[in-house]
Amino acid sequence: MGPASWWRCALLALLLVTPAAHSALSQLPQAPEPELRALLQRTVAESESFQDRFDAEVWLLDMSTRLQRYVPRADDRLTLLRLVHREASKAGLKPDLVLALIHAESRFDRFAISSVGAQGMMQVMPFWKAELGRPQDNLTDNATNLRYGCTILSYYLKKENGDLSRALARYNGSLGKNEYPARVIGIWQDIWYVKP
């Protein structure tokens, strides 16, 4: 029995015991799509993103100033920002959008764990490690978490033909609801957005 099946059975048993467990059942991850699994396998197996040194300095300084209230140490901020820029760029995402998603998901806490078990800054579900045959991956490692999270969001954005609200809802497991996408987009526009 795979991890997703096990969780479904466990929550179904809870559902029979407590009515409150019904809402938890709707939060269960769906079986991953084979195309997304293959994309994650390729991306996770790969291991810089700025084309121009001046652009790098401007972006890093701007974002470091914005990030300071969440990540106090300058070297930690710059390390994180380089990782975000690299992984977002590899996945074809705007780095400032990824910062907004991280802000919404974990407020930049690499050790964050959600009520359904999602881990790290981008709140990646641990079943992905088993799906990819990579049980050794540490989802609290920022580089690993960003690689997984950016790949997943990019996949959903392509699947939804560029519809950011629907892609964010898929990422969050709330397709059909607007609260989560509106929150991420609001944070992006209010705090992290960078004009092209």
Automatic annotation (TrEMBL):
Domain of life: Bacteria
Location of the Transglycosylase SLT domain: 84-177
Record bears the keyword Signal: yes
Signal peptide as annotated in the record: 1-23
InterPro entries reported for this sequence: Lysozyme-like_dom_sf, Transglycosylase_SLT_dom_1
Keywords recorded for this protein, A-Z: Signal
Family listed: Belongs to the transglycosylase Slt family.
Protein name: Transglycosylase SLT domain-containing protein
